[in-house]
Amino acid sequence: MRRRILDAAKQLFVKEGFDNVSIRRIAGAIEYSPAAIYRYFRNKREMLSVLRDEGFKQFVETQKERAGSIADPLERLRIGGRGYIRFALNEPEYFHLMFCTKCDEVDLEGKLAVSSMESYHLFRQSVEECVELNCFGDIDADTVVFSLWSGVHGLAHLINTGRVNVLVNDLDLDPLIDRILGFQLRPGPHVKNFEDKS
Fold first, then answer.
1. pLDDT for residue 38 is more than 50
2. With left for phi above 0 and alpha for psi between -120 and 50, is residue 172 left, alpha or beta?
3. Whether this model's pTM surpasses 0.90
């Protein structure tokens, strides 16, 4: 029953928006008593937090599998960027609940926030290693973190909403993704022969 409640809530949250979905609406979707749902969840916030945590656990696991053993932090970022977009394409509902819901709708502390913070720290660690190696020139880690994240997230969103395909016909996504990541991760203008230094 807990799984049925979560699956119904996930679909409704994505389709109608968190604010527009009531406990009664979720209960109706699975032909269950609204009062009985409270035996499993305190409120909608807990449901969304659980769903978000499920998505991040899956996301972190795939990121570790793909990039966890790679020593080169720049290559780790490239593979991580591809993985981020691939996750968005393969798990659009989880992706939406993880990255497109408001922070005040979910628990950002406690056990249901552990996986999301692990995801961020893994990404930031790779960025910090690149900054220490002067991969991008004289720039701070925060600037790199939010520049790369917003770029990859924006691309994932444009692909998922169909905007890329509308603007470019018969598009082969994989080469485009690789070129965009290569552009985002290119060395800074005054970084010379980085490959010789690494």
1. yes
2. beta
3. no
